[in-house]
């Protein structure tokens, strides 16, 4: 009989300083997103982003290396939600099912604000096609997400899981979501229904599952 798994330790609550820092970063990221949507990365300056966020230029550079880096928190937010949903998975849920359910929930916007955020991601991914610096931010965000996902996958897979398999699962699942979003960004498909991000991600994850079955 399998021993019940001990839930992963809850992360320490951020301090007031850390919460303020995160809030400032998000304000800057949103200002950058608005300007990129209106003018594109090439037509936007760091000074304009700082002004839009209501912060000094030196504050901008305290948090971000360049204007493209400023949208990193927004690009990372989906992965943050996905991992949180996975970590809350009911014990005993098969890992492929947990990955699929969390992906579907993360990529299915429940309200207008979430839909606008997803459409904003499409705008950024389209811009990244011609902006190497923005593309590098997207790849970095995905690499960091994969590294953080590994701990969640390892916990869900259990203590007897093969470390090679858990690493490959974390890498493949991250790439399935990334490819789904990138492919969706090349189309005008809506945020729900066929060819939506959730639909494409589920297809990708099921393809991976079929490829590793047997």
TrEMBL record:
Binding region for DNA: 45-64
Coiled coil: none
Pro residues: compositionally biased ranges: 1-12
Domain (HTH tetR-type) ranges: 22-82
PANTHER family with a match to the protein in the record: HTH-TYPE TRANSCRIPTIONAL REGULATOR RUTR, MYCOFACTOCIN BIOSYNTHESIS TRANSCRIPTIONAL REGULATOR MFTR-RELATED
Alphabetical keyword list: DNA-binding, Transcription, Transcription regulation
InterPro entries: DNA-bd_HTH_TetR-type_CS, Homeodomain-like_sf, HTH-type_TetR-like_transc_reg, HTH_TetR
Protein name as catalogued: TetR/AcrR family transcriptional regulator
Region spans: Disordered: 1-22
A Pfam family hit: TetR_N
PROSITE patterns: HTH_TETR_1 (PS01081), HTH_TETR_2 (PS50977)
